[in-house]
Each structure stands twice: as C-alpha cells, then as structure tokens.
Sequence to fold (483 residues):
Amino acid sequence: MTTSIIPKSYSNVIYLQPSFSFTEDSFSSLRHLPYVKLGLEFPWEEVFSPIEQEFLQARFEYHFKKRTSTDAAPSSTELFPDIPQDLSTLPTRSAKGRKGVNFYALLKAFLLAPLLYVEVMVSSVHLQVIGNSDFRMVCGFDTRPSLKTFERFDQIMIENGLWEKARQLMVSYNLFHGIVGKEEQLAVDTTHVDAEATVHKMKKCSHSEPCHCPKIPTDDNVGVMRKSNTVTYIAHKISLVCGVESELPLSRSVFKGDEHDAKTLEPTLEKVTEDLPEEFLKTVQYVSADGIYQSADNQQHTKSILKAKLLAPINPRKIQDKALESCGMTKLDRYGVPHCISGHKLQLKGLDEAKEHYVWTCPVFDPKYKQEGLSCSNEQHIQCCNGAKTGRTLRIHQSMTPQIDTEFPQHLQSFKKKYAERTAIERVIGIAKDGLSMRRVHKRGRLAVEAHVDRCMITAHALAYMSVQGTGQLYRGWTKLSA
Fold:
C-alpha cells in the first residue's frame, strides 16, 4: 500500500490507496464481491484465447489501414518549406509502434462493469477504470488507458464480429463443462432495448463537393415499438432463447423495433441452429412461446428447423363466442371452451383421434377434474346431465374449434404443466435488463446492438460457471458465487 497526503489544511487526514504493485492476496477480503471473484478466478485465457488472436490481427489491420490512408497526404516540405531538409540528426520512432493495452484487461472491463451497476458504454467503462483503483487492478491494467483505447477496442470487436464469437465460445464452454445440461424444452420471447437514436433520421455523405450519394439512416435498426395504445418506445427488438432448466440465455437475434413478434420466430430458430451444437439440439422436443407466436406457419417452422413442437397458448384473433346447441350448454367461447347453464367452463378430458372429437367433462361432479369452489343446483344438474353421478360428458368435433392445436390441445392439464416452464425466459430477460445492463444501448446500428446483447450473455454465463465451481449449484444471478 502507498499513502498520499492531501494539502496542509487537511494534514491530519491520510488517505490510503492501493498500490500499482498488485497482488491477488491484497484482495482476499474482497473476494466475496462478484466482479472480484470473476475477474481473478475465471479462466479468461482458456476460453477467449482464439478471440485474442483475432483481435490482435484485426487491430494490426486497423492501424495499417489507417496509416496507408494517409500516404497520399502532402509531404512536410510542401507544408513547411522553411524547415531544414536534413533530418537525420533528429530521433526516429520505432516502426513497431507502442505496445498495445492488454486484451484481457479491456475484455474484463466491459464484461465486469455491469456487476458494479455501471451502464455499459465506452465512456462509462473508461471512467470506472480510471476512477476505481480496485476495479482497474482486478481487470489487470498497469496504467490508466485513454478513452481512445476503449473506443478503438470496442470498435474493432464490433466491426469484426468478435463479441458474437466470444459469446458463442462462452456458451460452448459451459455446454462442454456441463454447466448447461441438455434441454428438452427451449423458451423464446422478445423484449425491447431502448435506443439512443431518432427514427427515420437520415444523414448525408461526408463529401464537401456536390454529389449524388444517397442518404442513409443514422441507425439502420431502430424502430417504434408499441406495447399498448398509450405506451411506445424508440427501441430495438431482441429475441432471446433459453433452456427452461438452466435458465441461461443460449442464443439471440436482433430485429427492428417495429418488427411483428410473430415474424421473428423463424429467423430466431435458424440462429439457434447456428449458435448451438447439433448434439445439444437433438434432445430438444418443445419450444414454448407466447400466444402471439401461435400460427400454422410458426408450427411448421419449428418442426422443420428444430424438429420440435411449438407450445403456445390459443390466440383467438378474430374468432368470437358462438351459441352451442347442445342440452345444458350455453355457448362455445372464443378459446374453444364450452360453457354449461351453471356458467362453468367444462374441462378437456381427452381427444378421440378416430372420430376427431374433443371430449369435455364436468368440473363439478367428475372426481378427477373437479375444481374446488364450484357448485351446481339440483335443478340445473338434472337439466344438464340428467343427474349423472360424474356430470356431463360432451363431445365436440375438431372442425368447430380450429383455434385449438390438435397435436397438443392447449386445454389439457399436461399442456398447461409443460407450458408453465416458459416463465424461465421472463426471468432471463429480467436479470439481463436489470442486472446486466441490457436495458439501453448507446451505439447505433444492428452490429452495435448485437454486441451489446452478446456482452450481457457472456457475463451471465461466466457468473453461472463461477457459481457451479464455487458451490456445485447453478445460480442465475450474482448473489452466490462461493459457498
């Protein structure tokens, strides 16, 4: 430790600041903090060494391109004719240039910042590094890098798709080590990420002379996302896929904010096949999603792409309630459920595939499907089912209720139990937005949005890995990383 003493007027106060001669032992009392434990103990080089090599090559090409672009500039003698022509006595700078900032230090800075509730953008991450000595040392910086270093790092990572490759490596690493097991069911849902952009705003080219260059949008992915008649967002739409057992994000797709949810399922599933290994996808039998996804096209897409069954509740759309001409029945509602004269909804008992009938039963008198709190008067009981001990059994042909999925009817208890696992994706989205800084993106363009989501997913998987290593159990947040 080193000491720094502030001016004489406050000479009785001595502030202690960590020394730059960093050793891991000096953080023994801080290892319970998620960012410290993750920064010091996670196998960064084992996971991301291929990304390091690609980054170094891309950084070299970036500087080479920048240097060659200035070759045609005027010479110094043309700009400054009065300076001496013989410059051999002046010191020359090495052609190799300065040594770059450590790749893993910059990578950690972007991935660990959300754990300090820092909104991940270049400027805020840079301020955290230069202003928080503990954070700077955990990341592995020897000096305080400039803001330009962070801007260049993020730009190179985005333009070369390295954040996406890093995310794929991280997910594959957890799959290989059993942190994420094989899944029978995946869950899909969309969410919005606030954009720092203006919809339909165009920009001109940088030419100083008149030209015919077409105008291009300042953000090629932003759109107006309408949550209701009164709530709208200028945002990007993100489709996330998770396993219902692991509750970890496994894949992502990015769409314009005004893209309809129902049209996002096919490209989302195709992206899943690119991101996840075939061995993992073989065990997937179901894909659960919200009711907006329920359509014949999406059912077919799920079968053809993943060879799985789409589980989605009934979306009646324009279907209305209609009268049901059957003794003791009043109507068939827009969800395909018959109602009796007592006002009760009948329970789906099963499907007669030979006759293509749905078999419905009484929720009051059938002991297997009885619902607590329901009653039926003796008069209505006799009128509806002639006083049968187990109540009324009703058969309805499938053609009368096309909104019900014939392969796996949504009103079956087995469907409801399986579909209840879909809530895993809601928790994944909640953790990503409130705990991993996915709520807002500060750069423009689809590539920047994809990189923003990829960073959140990498941090989530790194935390999951550390929780299993420390406790033997998978925790989805960052509250328990060690026993």
Observations:
- The longest strand covers residues 232-243.
- The radius of gyration is 31 Å.
- Confidence is low (pLDDT under 50) at residues 1-24, 75-80.
- DSSP finds 15 helices and 17 strands in the chain.
